[in-house]
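Lecture 7, part 2: worked example. A protein chain together with NAP.
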Amino acid sequence: MERRALPFYEETRSKTYAEWDILPLLDSWGENVIRRSEKSGKKALITGVTGQDGSYLAEILLAKGYEVWGMVRRSSSPNTTRIDHLIEDPRGEDVRFRLVWGDLNDASSLNHILRSIGPNEVYNLAAQSDVKISFDIPEYTGDITGIGAVRLLEGIRENGLQTSFYQASSSELYGKVVESPQSETTRFYPRSPYAAAKAYAFHITRNYREAYDMFAVNGILFNHESPRRGLNFVTRKITHGAAQILAGKLDCLFLGNLNARRDWGFAGDYAEAMWLMLQAEQPSDYVVASGETHPVREFCALAFARAGLPLSWQGEGVDEVGLGPDGDVLVRVDPRYFRPAEVDLLLGDPTKAKRELGWEPKVSFMELVNSMVDADLELLGVKALEPQPSTAG
Ligand code: NAP
Ligand code: GDD
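Predicted complex, written out as C-alpha cells:
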C-alpha cells in the first residue's frame, strides 16, 4: 500500500523576523546564537513551534545538531514570524528544520506525523495558553491544552515508538497556592479552565510514564518571557505599551491586577531546561523557576523607567494610576482585565532542576525587563527618553 506523504508546510519566506530580532539579548544569553553543528542523528518534533517557547527550543535543538520538525496549524495568514529565520528551502540538501501541518485537536494528523517522522523526542508546547481567554473558551481550552497531550501520548504508544515526551506543564497548576515557595511536592489548586486543562495533561503524562514505562516528563515552568512574548501577556503588553507611548501611538496603558506577583524568567533559559529534562537518566517532573517573585506594578515601573518614563503611583484599587514625568496619567487600571478567579502569587523553588539537571538560568530579572523594553523601542523605532532609576513599588 502506498504511504501517505507528510503534509508539508509550504513556506512563504516572509522574513519579517528581522523586525523581531533580539540579538543583544541573545548575545548576553551566550551560547544560543543560531549556528550549525555536527548532526546529532536525533530527530525532535515540536508542537507549538510558532510560539514563544517553540522558537527558542527549535534554535537550541538545531544548535545541538538535531533534525527539528515543527508542527504548524493552519491559519488564514502566515504566523511564522518567530521562526522565519530558521525556515529552510525544503527542497535543499541536508535540511535540518522542517515544518509540517497538524493540529492538537486532530488525532489522525498527530498519528500520521509521529509514525512518519519517528522522532526520538517530542516536545508538546502547543496549547491555548492564555489564562484569561480560557474563561471565554473553556471547552476548546480543555480539548487542546488538556486532551491534546493524550492524543500525542497515545500516538507514541500505539505506533510503538521509543520516544521521550516533554509536556509543557505550568505553575498555574498551583493556582491558589497552599505553600510558598512552590516545589514538585506542592499540592495543585487550579484557578482557571486553562489550569484545569493543564492539570489533566500533567496527570496523564505521569500516568503514561507509570503505566507504560514511557520516558514522559512534565516541566512545571513558571512564567517566562522574552521580546518574542505574545502581546496579550502582561510583561510584553507593558514593554510594548511603554514603547507605543514614546512613539505617540498610545496615551495611556490600561492594565488589570497590579498586585499579582509572578516568578518571571527568560524563555530561552527555560527552553534549555526542557531539553535537559529529556537527557536525564530517569524520567521525572521538574519545577523551573527563578526563585524570585515581583508584583506586576514593579515590572511596570521598571519597564517604564527603562524607557525614560519613571512612574509615580497614586490612588488605590481601580483608581490607582501611574503618573509619568510630566504628571500625565500613563497607566490606569481597567477591571475588564481582572480574572474571575486570580492567581495572586507564584514563587517557584527550582532546587531539584538545579541539583539533578545542572540547570542554571543565565538572564536575571532586570536583564529580562531591560531587554524586552529595548527590543520594543527598537521595534517601534523610538529611543528611551533618558533611562532613570526606577520608583518601583
Ligand atoms: P504561545 O506563545 O502561546 O504558543 C502556543 C503555541 O501553540 C503556538 O505555536 C500556537 O500556534 C500553538 N497552538 C495553539 N493551539 C494549537 C492547536 N490546536 N494545534 C497545534 N498548535 C496549537 O505559548 P508559549 O508561551 O510559547 O508556551 C509554550 C507552552 O508552555 C504552552 O503549552 C504554555 O501553556 C506552556 N507554558 C508557558 C509558560 C510561559 O510563561 N510562557 C509557563 C508555563 C507553561 P499559533 O502560533 O498558530 O497560535
Ligand atoms: N494578561 C494580562 N493583561 N495580565 C495582567 C494585566 C493585563 O492587562 N494586568 C495585570 N495582569 C496580571 C494577571 O491578572 C496575572 O495575575 C499576571 O498579570 C500575569 O498574567 P499573564 O502575563 O497573562 O500570564 P499568566 O500568569 O496568567 O499566564 C502565563 O504564565 C503561565 C505560567 O504561570 C501564561 O504564559 C500561561 O500559559 C502560563 O502557564
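The pocket of NAP (ligand 1) is lined by residues 47-48, 50-54, 73, 75, 79, 103-105, 125-129, 144, 168, 170, 221, 223-224, 230 (CB under 6 Å). The chain has a mean pLDDT of 91. Keep this in mind for problem set question 3.
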